[in-house]
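ARCHIVE CARD
Drawer: 12
Card no.: 0347
Subject: one protein chain, sequence and derived structure
Cross-reference: see card 0346
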Amino acid sequence: MTKNASLYSATSLLCVLLLLTLNLATVKLFGEMEFWFSMVKIVAIVALIILGAVLVFMHFPSPSGSVASFTNLWDHGGMFPKGISGFFAGFQI
């Protein structure tokens, strides 16, 4: 077994054990854990939105030379440069 295969196996086993532990827990404990996991997700989303706003307002340059700006929303043909079909095709993912 290669090193990557054993790493994937260990990661899979850890995920299965975590889900098993969550499912075997009492209903009250499960609800409490679900609350905190969702709180972590909400905090992460809000932090990423704030980080994005900070980068835009600081005009942060990328390594390729483009600058973070709201004009990127409508440059290069706008939000749907090749039509809205790409937007709907993204729902399949």
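Annotation on reverse: The chain has three helices and no strands. The radius of gyration is 21 Å.
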